[in-house]
Structures are given as C-alpha cells and as structure tokens.
Amino acid sequence: MALWLNLALVEEGLTTRYVGRHLLYLTRTASTQDVARAEAEQGAPSGTAVLAEEQTGGRGRLGRPWVSPAGKNLYLTLVMRPPASRLRFLSIVAPLAVAEALEAAAGLSCRIKWPNDVLVRGRKISGVIIEADLAGEAVKYALVGMGVNVNLDVEAVPEIAGIATSVRRELGREGSREEVLAALLNAFESRYAEALEGDAPFRAWRSRLETLGRRVRATLGERVEEGVAEDVNAEGSLLIRRDDGSLATVEAGDVTLSA
Length: 259
Hints:
By secondary structure, the chain is an alpha+beta fold. The protein has two domains: 7-207, Bira Bifunctional Protein, Domain 2 (BirA Bifunctional Protein, domain 2), CATH 3.30.930.10; 215-257, SH3 type barrels (Roll), CATH 2.30.30.100. 26% of the residues lie in helices and 29% in strands. The protein has helices at 7-13, 32-41, 90-106, 167-171, 177-197, 200-207, and strands at 23-26, 48-52, 74-80, 111-113, 117-120, 123-135, 138-148, 215-220, 223-232, 238-241, 247-250, 254-257. Strands 1-2-3-7-6-5-4 form a seven-stranded mixed β-sheet, with helices on both faces. Strands 11-10-9-8-12 form a five-stranded antiparallel β-sheet, with no helix packed on it. A hairpin with a 5-residue loop joins strand 10 and strand 11 (247-250). 42% of the residues are buried. The mean pLDDT is 93.
C-alpha cells in the first residue's frame, strides 16, 4: 500500500471545473475542518479542498471523534460558498456524492442513514460534517467535511469493528484512494450544480435513505423521539410517526435504526 496519495492520478480522473482544483494536501493535521476554516477566512475560493493523510483530532457529527490513521482513508474538507437559500442542500449533496463515488470507483452499493451517514450492507463507510459561518442571513462560507473508509482494517479498531466497514473490507482487497477521491470530487460538483438549480439531489438522496420505513429512535440532547420513520419533508427533516399516531419532525439528531 502506498502511504501517500498520487495526486497526478487524482488529477487525471478529475472532470470538475473548480471543485478540488485548488487542493491543499497535508501529511498530518489535527482536523481538516480547522485548516479549511482558516483557508476560508483568508478568502479561499469555493471548491477549495483540504486533504490530510492523517488527522490527530478528526471529528464527525455531534462532536464525535473520527478514527483517522495515516495513509488508509480519505479525510477531506471542501470550502463552499453557497447562497443562503441552498445551504441546506450541502448535507444532502455530500453523502450522495460519496455514495455515487463509491459505486463508480469501487462498485459498492450504498445507502444513506438519515441525515448523512453512508452505509454499505448496514455498516458505516463514510460520515459527513457540515459547518457554516454566517453574516446575518448571508453565508460567508460553509465547510463540508467528509471521511471515507477506504483501506482501513476496521476489525483492528475495537470501537468501530462491529459497526463500520471500508472498501478494503467489502472488496477483500485494497481500493484506490485516488480513484475514490476523483470520483467524489466529480460527483460533488455535479450534484452541487444541480442543487443550485432544483431538487434533483434531494430526490436522489431520499431514494437512498435506509431510514425510511424503519423503526427508529432519534436523540438530540434531552429530546428523544421514537416511532416509524415515515418520510422526510422538503427541508430534509425526518418525519417520525409516534406510536400514538402523532407526527414528530426532527431537524437534527442521532438516529438509531431498529434491527
């Protein structure tokens, strides 16, 4: 396994106009989100990518740590500058792009657990974190963080062994991080362009939701909702039919699927 990415191979596979064309490649950092924030504050253009071989303080949604060993996976943050009206689409575009990239580059069939965990055969292969800096009602910038397990030996990491997977685990061999990265950047730009114009990414995201029709438990702080995940609304919120027949709308939170 090559420890470092071959950026020339990545560039060969890129078809984007701007996403990933300005790329900051780091061997080791605390978090690509933090570096990307600093770049955004300095005026980095939309589509700027911050990529690291290793994160010492990688984090996912809800502040959870993200296992980030060197030379195994993809740890990536994109700086985007969407109009405020389309900001919400980033949490839809990102997991959708990951799913489509893994299908294109590795032949894996991917589903999405609401709102943006990417699953293969029920196990998590990728997570997304979206952070935004606002100035009044305007978006100064948004940070789209994506972690994709490519060549991680998940069985060697006890805390995720039973719930995570990787391209390597699914294929029985190492995957090409370069091919996955190029496919991810290509899919992201394509789906983001669609999101600026309409709701095609929303429909594609909804069609992949593993959550719908399942009994779920949604938790955010002290709020807990249980019932059957019936649908998502136009804002992407999860609609849960409680056991008493009432409908709960969950905008964010941690969702556990029943077996």
